[in-house]
C-alpha cells in the first residue's frame, strides 16, 4: 500500500503546476501549455501553479481520446491544483518579486 502512495505522490509532483512554472524555465512551461493547445495566453507568476493546472484542465482533449474513459483526470488535476495552491502560497514572496521583475509567462506569441 505504501508503494501506491509513493507512486501517486511522484506522479502528482511530476505534473505539479507549481513545479512546471516556478522551477522550469518560462519557455518550457509555455511549450508545455502550447503542446496541450491550452486556451491560456499568459500565466501570471503569482499562483502560477494553480493557473497552470486550470489551463491544463480546460485544454481540449487530444484527437482519438474518448472523454468518458478519462473522467478521473479531472479529479487528479483538481488534487494537483490543491497541492499547487499550498506550494504557491508558500512561494508568494518569490513569485511576487518575479511578477514585478519579469511579468507573466507568455504562452501565445
Question: Can you describe what's shown?
Answer:
With 109 residues, the protein is mostly helical. It has one domain. It is 64% helix and 4% strand. The protein has six helices and two strands; from the N terminus they run H-H-H-E-H-H-H-E. A two-stranded antiparallel ribbon has the order 1-2. The radius of gyration is 14 Å and the shape is globular.
SSE layout:
Elements: H1 2-14, H2 17-23, H3 26-35, E1 42-43, H4 48-57, H5 72-90, H6 92-102, E2 105-106
Antiparallel strand pairs: 1-2
Helix pairs in contact: 2-4, 4-5
Computed over alpha carbons, the radius of gyration is 14 Å
Count of distinct structural domains: 1
Name the overall outline.
globular
Strand order of the largest sheet: 1-2
Rounded to the nearest angstrom, the distance between the terminal CA atoms is 46 Å
**Residues in helices, as a percent range:** 55-70%
Secondary structural class: mainly alpha
The beta-strand count equals 2
User: What are the low-pLDDT stretches, counting only 5+ consecutive residues below 50?
Assistant: none
Main sheet specs? 2 strands, antiparallel
Q: What is the string of helix and strand elements?
A: HHHEHHHE
Strand content: under 5%
Overall mean pLDDT score? Answer: 81
Number of helices: 6
Keywords:
mainly alpha, YceK/YidQ family lipoprotein, two-stranded antiparallel ribbon, 64% helix, globular, 2 strands, lipoprotein, single chain, DUF1375
Amino acid at each position: 500500500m505504501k508503494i501506491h502512495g509513493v507512486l501517486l505522490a511522484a506522479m502528482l509532483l511530476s505534473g505539479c503546476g507549481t513545479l512546471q512554472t516556478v522551477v522550469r524555465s518560462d519557455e518550457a512551461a509555455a511549450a508545455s501549455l502550447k503542446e496541450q493547445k491550452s486556451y491560456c495566453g499568459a500565466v501570471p507568476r503569482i499562483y502560477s501553479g494553480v493557473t497552470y493546472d486550470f489551463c491544463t484542465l480546460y485544454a481540449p482533449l487530444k484527437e482519438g481520446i474518448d472523454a468518458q474513459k478519462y473522467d478521473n483526470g479531472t479529479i487528479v488535476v483538481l488534487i494537483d491544483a490543491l497541492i499547487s495552491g499550498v506550494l504557491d502560497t508558500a512561494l508568494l514572496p518569490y513569485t511576487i518579486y518575479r511578477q514585478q521583475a519579469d511579468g507573466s509567462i507568455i504562452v501565445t506569441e
